[in-house]
Structures are given as C-alpha cells and as structure tokens.
Amino acid sequence: xxxxxxxxxxxxxxxxxxxxxxxxxxxxxxxxxxxxxxxxxxxxxxxxxxxxxxxxxxxxxxxxxxxxxxxxxxxxxxxxxxxxxxxxxxxxxxxxxxxxxxxxxxxxxxxxxxxxxxxxxxxxxxxxxxxxxxxxxxxxxxxxxxxxxxxxxxxxxxxxxxxxxxxxxxxxxxxxxxxxxxxxxxxxxxxxxxxxxxxxxxxxxxxxxxxxxxxxxxxxxxxxxxxxxxxxxxxxxxxxxxxxxxxxxxxxxxxx
Length: 256
Ligand SMILES: *Cc1c(COP(=O)(O)O)cnc(C)c1O
What we know:
alpha/beta; 8-stranded parallel sheet; 9 helices; binds pyridoxal-5'-phosphate
C-alpha cells in the first residue's frame, strides 16, 4: 500500500451507509489486511523492525459481530473507551481468547468493573487515579498493565497529564508495585496535515526518552500508543509501537 504525498494512509474511510447499523458494512478482514500493509510499509520507511507496531482495534460503538470477524482474522487486541461497553460486550466476545484494554477515561467508581475484564488501562493520567487502582488491586491480590496518558495537544477538552507534569506522574506510578507501566499513550492533535499532527507524536517519543533517561520511567516502559485511522502511518514514523484503529477497519461508527 502506498501513502500519498502528504504521508497520510492510503486506506479510505468506509462510507457511512444509511441503515448500516445492523450489519457490518465492510469486509473487516480485507480492511485489516490493508491496514497491516500500511503498518508494515510505514515501519519499513522508518527503518524499524517488521512487527514492531501492534494494531489495537478501537471498538467503541461497534457490536460484537464485526469484532468477532476481526478476531477470526487473527487480530485479538481491542480497546474500549467506555466501561459500560467493555462490560456489555464481554460475554459475546468471550468465545474467542482476546486482550482488552481500556482506552477512555476511567472514573474511580468503575475501577472494579474494569479490573476483571481489561488487562491494561491506557488512560492513567493522575496519581490519584493510579493510587485508587493500586488499592483495588491490593484487595484482589492482582496486578495490571498501564500506559500513562499524556495530553500532547494541550487542549482543555482532552484527558491526559500535561507533558510538564508527566515526570512526577511517572515517578509516582513507578512506585506502585501492582501497576506495570508499559509506556506512554496520547490522542494527539486533531489536525488536517502532517505538519499539524506530527509534533504531538514527536513530543510523546521525546518525552519517553527523557523520562527513561532521567529514571522517572522504568527502562522497560518503552511503548508508545499513538496513531488512529487517519494518521497511523505518521505515528509509526514517529515511533508508535501500538496504533489504535477504529473506523478504517469497521467503517463509520453506528450512531448511538
Ligand atoms: C476512537 C478512538 C480511536 C480510533 O479512532 P479512529 O479514527 O476510528 O481510528 C483511537 N483511540 C481512541 C482513544 C479512540 O477513542
């Protein structure tokens, strides 16, 4: 697959077909093959190891069936934004072994629901939230993986710790033995052009280097969860080890 001159991915978004709420409007397996080809090509362009960026499927608003199609195609890493959806789909998806992450904001009264169902929380953005997760895990004698979410676009509307406060958060969470930090996550800047989008991703990669070299993050916390349907190739060029893909694979999201 080729990227156009702007560096944007060559996979067109699926059409928003009226009345498509019930049946999946797209061939999930072939779209996944296209996305995988885009990931592979971006890794090669960036001189990175083949296979060094995972595809996480952002499944918000999607019913179980297209998600099961993705599982059958061999893609079993999913991310849900809302705890309610994580809980609601768990039984239907349990037929196939898979790994679920929480990629949306987490309210402390929902932590217990998440702990049984998600193996990773990508939205840890405050020491207070991390502390509460740690306490629930102590009660259960369990542990969980996390990403620290950073607000690289500095928009007030976005979750995530401010980049200048990330070191303090990393040090605090590193001290919580039941939370294993995999790395950093960001949503990035919702720009139109690579020039607008790239700096957010570059900043997250630089922040990881700084936090590891200063000892704020443990050495193993090298992962970068960044990049979505519209810009995942760019994110990979900037070092993403996990891209979060929704609409390019599943088509436009059904309306709530
Ligand atoms: C929806 C979502 C994505 C995927 O977005 P698409 O543009 O549909 O690929 C990625 N990350 C998060 C946090 C999301 O909420």
